[in-house]
Amino acid sequence: MAKNYKFERLNAGRDYIADNYQAHLNLSCIAKHSYMSPYHFLRVFKDAYGETPNEFLIRIRVEQAKKMLITENYSVSEICEKVGYTSLGSFSSLFLKHVGTAPTLYRRKLWALSSEAYRFPSQSIPACYAYHFLGKLAN
Fold it and tell me: Which of 33, 34, 58, 71 is the least crowded, having the fewest Cβ atoms under 10 Å away?
């Protein structure tokens, strides 16, 4: 019973991160939504999900940026701001680290695969090929 209560509180923090990924978040603010101290929340989150809250936040931001790069006509700078980063350099470095290619190159490769502009290429190419470019096989 007590474990379920703790897990629900932990999920509240995780949901808060997922719902507010585009805002400036810090550990104290997130932990407050789980009614835990920041250090306890950090330790329990890592034990439960295998990644820190910051790693989870970065993963969500990169995934959202990947979607927006394919389906939207925003510039990379605009996407950077929409997913919660204030520095284009930081965003590009994190994107490169997690995806393996720069945001602009990622967009060009996937748009080249699609026959229609701003259309997700997996709709026009085999899913296994699109998943390879989206990094789904690596996860």
Answer: 71
